[in-house]
Amino acid sequence: MKSRLIAAIAAAGAVALAVPTANSALATPSATSVQAAPDISLTNVKAHLTQLQTIANNNGGNRAHGRPGFKASADYVKAKLDAAGYTTALQQFTYNGATGWNVIADWPGGDPNQILMTGAHLDSVSAGPGINDNGSGTAAVLETALAVARENYKPEKHLRFAWWGAEELGLIGSNYYVQNLPSTERSKVKGYLNFDMVGSPNPGYFVYDGDNSDGTGSGPGPAGSAEIEKVIEGYFAGINVPTRGTDFDGRSDYGPFIRAGIPAGGTFTGAEGRMTTAQQQLWGGTAGVAFDRCYHQSCDTSSNINDTALDRNSDAIAHSVWTLAGGGTQQNDYSLSLDPASGSAQAGQSVTSSVKTQITSGSAQSVSLSATSTPSGPTASFSPSTIQSGGSSTMTVNVPSGTAAGTYTIKVTGDGASVDRTANYTLTVGGTPGDVVFDDGLETDKGWQANPSGTDTATNGAFQRGAPQRTTYGTTVTQLAAAGGTTDLVTGASAGASAGDYDLDGGVSTIQSPEIALPSGTLSLSFQYYLAHLNNATSADYLRVRVVGPNGSSVVLNQAGAATTRTASWQSATYDLTPYAGQSVRIVVDAADAGTASLIEAAVDNVKITKS
User: Fewer CB within 10 Å: C terminus or N terminus of the chain?
Assistant: First the structure.
């Protein structure tokens, strides 16, 4: 993705491209003609990234325009497509005295007057290999194109794929393509999908705002862009990943297409911008840190990729191509998820989870629910046991007396009339006295939820499960590394340029554990914590830990602030949970900067409940 400065220059120089065309709005094929897209193999996508990294390593460390690494990248992509049966071409252009190329690949068949294009820029900046920017988009689009060939897909629309040169210098390759496309041919292109940076290491999930529903920036895309946006948003909704809009700001290769009146859309996982606390609560990750800290730098290597984001976006690309191109036979489809996806219980107890389904394509279908446990022992029942896709059911997991302590995977299967879907529930079973009922060192996500009631008032530095960075104010340590491992519950994990950048400000912040089923017997809660502040704190500031059960709650810890400096220091606390035996509880942690504007930091780690 090109820099904001080059984006502005490119936009200013592209006015001549803003020509009216006869291009009609993109029509989404009817549900009866849509074939479900295949799963795009993350392993295959990453294999392409490995090749691009090797190409950069062998050619001066980059794949930039005019450098041998770019031509080698273009040759690699073209060879893969040639072998798969595409009609390919290297479109040559010259910029800044150097030769560049666009790789253009057409899949045989489909209506030649209804062309769906999908593209990504192939070049890097000269500073590094450009594996996220934009090896990620290059590899994901390439593997989607190869999946078209493997599936022998016969779409209604004609499919054309493109890998652009010299994007980083101002969309040079894509501008050249659109400018040199005759008007009659340009009018046949009914939509363009663009994928630039789809594996950022601290990822967001952004979809180009085709309908301008966000009401910011450049306004809506050409007619048909809204339909593209809806298709992509629908895919992410089907896998329970929230999305947010991103403006058509001219920073990538959709620019020449929308200026020519061609509908466009795509996804983006973020560049140099920093993730906000609100975005962190949506997607995880680290607030206050760039989506891609290696943007346009030498460290944008194969280690600068978030596999989950790359996998999700690769599948979103395929879903978009298959949905918008049409063809094949109908595939009614749905997603299946569990909320929560994990829980704990003792032998003789039970836990519940909501089984949720959502239609992702076609029409509703009957879905029969069943479950198996690995290893065997726990059993599951559903109420109701058969639902229509789009509906939900309650799963009750029963743990028979005598079930051994340990971790069990409950595989829930939705047996649909057209397709089957599965989801896994992780069950932790406690055992005899002395066993651990709940143990969370915060290194993996076990379901802690920030601002669970939606009533928090903090304006900065909210609680998150994150990797804290040591922070000091003069000689006072205000934030420590995790007590164990690398992750804890902390108010604003990032250090920032100064100690006050990500401390807790403006009110209360809360974070809550998943539901914990307690056995009968003598129970003890233990955890580590600290509250740190400067001498501008007051007694209205605090760190508090509570146990919340079905019939009331108890304050386990209430550490108040004071008008003295308190340096961060890990402390230990224990609490008798026996009064809650046999109940399901949650651990609630909250902190407040409730007095004057104070510098407040707090953290909790190593939360454990044991039976004795």
Answer: C
DSSP state of 475: T
CA distance 122 to 90: 13
- pLDDT band per the 50, 70, 90 thresholds, residue 34: low
One-letter amino acid at 579 equals P
d(CA 267, CA 245): 9
User: Looking up tokens 């001549």, which residue turns up?
Assistant: 16
Residue 17 predicted with pLDDT over 50:
no
Catalytic positions, written as ranges: 167
Structural domain boundaries, residue 236: 4-13+36-325
Going from the C-alpha of 424 to that of each of 233, 308, 359, 420, the distances in angstroms are: 24, 17, 19, 14
Strands 189-195 and 264-268: parallel
DSSP string, 306-319: -HHHHHHHHHHHHH
- Exposed, middle or buried by CB within 10 Å (0-12, 13-18, 19+), for 474? exposed
pLDDT for res 29: 52
Q: Across 446-507, where does the E strand assignment appear?
A: 449-450, 463-466, 471-473, 476-479, 488-491
Per the omega criterion (within 30 degrees of 0), is the bond before 384 cis?
yes
Whether the ω angle into residue 519 lies within 30 degrees of 0, i.e. cis, is no
CA terminus-to-terminus distance, the chain? 58
Give DSSP secondary structure letters for 184-205.
HHHTTEEEEEEE-----SS---
> Which CATH number belongs to the domain containing residue 514 in this structure?
2.60.120.200
Q: What pLDDT, on a 0 to 100 scale, did the predictor assign at position 14?
A: 40
**Torsion-angle region of 379 (φ positive above 0: left; ψ -120 to 50: alpha; else: beta):** beta
Task: Tell me: do 417 and 449 sit in the same domain.
Answer: no
Q: Which residue has the tokens 């460390």?
A: 61
DSSP 8-state code for residue 145: H
pTM for this predicted structure: 0.57
Residues 184 and 247 in one domain: yes
Residue 233 is classified by DSSP as H
* Structure tokens that stand for 183 in this block: 């008007």
Domain end (from 304, 325, 346):
325
Maximal C-alpha separation, the chain = 80
Which strand (E) or helix (H) includes residue 437? strand 436-440
Predicted confidence at residue 436, as pLDDT, reads 84
How far is the CA of 95 from the CAs of 32, 92, 122, 166, in angstroms?
A: 46, 10, 16, 8
